[in-house]
Each structure stands twice: as C-alpha cells, then as structure tokens.
Design the sequence.
C-alpha cells in the first residue's frame, strides 16, 4: 500500500512538472506549432522527473555507472512510448474537441494517469527487473 501511495505521489509530481513546463512554454512562445512544442518539452521534463523518482524510491535501482544508468533510461523511455501515445492522444483529443487550454491540460492529466498505471507494470516487468 505504501508503494502505491508513493507511486501516485510521484506520478502527481511528474504530472505537475509536465503540465507546468507546457504552460511555461506556451506563455513564452506563441509561434507556429506552439502546442506541439509545449507538449514535447513537457513530456521530456515529466519523463526525467519520473525516472529519477521511480528509480530511487519505487524500484530502488542503483546504476553501476553512468553508462548503465543511460542504458536503463533508454529502456525506460522505450517502455514509455506506448504510454506517451496514450497521453498525447487524450491531450490532443481534448484540445481538438473542446478547444481550450484548460481542457487540453485536463486531457493531459487524464492521459498521464492512464499511462502511469500501464507504465508501472511495464517498468516492473521489463526495466527494473530486480524489483523486490
């Protein structure tokens, strides 16, 4: 139960980092493809935040060296491709159907929540295999 609470907390932190980065980018840049750019940057920020929190506190992973950590991060990103597609699909869908910034962010939060549930299972099984 404690693990689930921590995972949920870290997912919330990564979601705030992601949506916060998106909001910052759209405030700074309003040019062509500003929404796509903000989602790409937000995804990157959220991904790094979640990886750092998950590897230390959820999966208790300690890399042998920088190369090992980079390899694990690459695998973590690879497992996140499906969940990122879900997240982007919901966020872009909300943006398309409702047409407001608030709706897009709500869609992003819903997509991230769905994605994080799936991502935990993928990470446990394929990335951090030494999970107790």
Sequence:
């Amino acid at each position: 139960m404690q693990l689930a609470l921590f995972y949920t907390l870290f997912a919330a932190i990564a979601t705030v980092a992601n949506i916060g980065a998106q909001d910052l980018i759209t405030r700074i840049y309003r040019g062509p493809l500003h929404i796509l750019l903000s989602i790409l940057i937000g995804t990157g920020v959220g991904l790094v935040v979640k990886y750092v929190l998950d590897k230390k506190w959820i999966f208790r992973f300690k890399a042998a060296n920088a190369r090992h950590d980079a390899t694990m991060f690459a695998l973590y990103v690879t497992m996140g491709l499906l969940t990122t597609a879900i997240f982007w699909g919901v966020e872009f869908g909300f943006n398309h159907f409702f047409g407001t910034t608030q709706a897009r962010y709500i869609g992003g939060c819903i997509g991230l929540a769905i994605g994080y549930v799936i991502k935990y299972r993928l990470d446990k099984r394929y990335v951090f295999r030494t999970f107790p």
Notes: The mean pLDDT is 94.
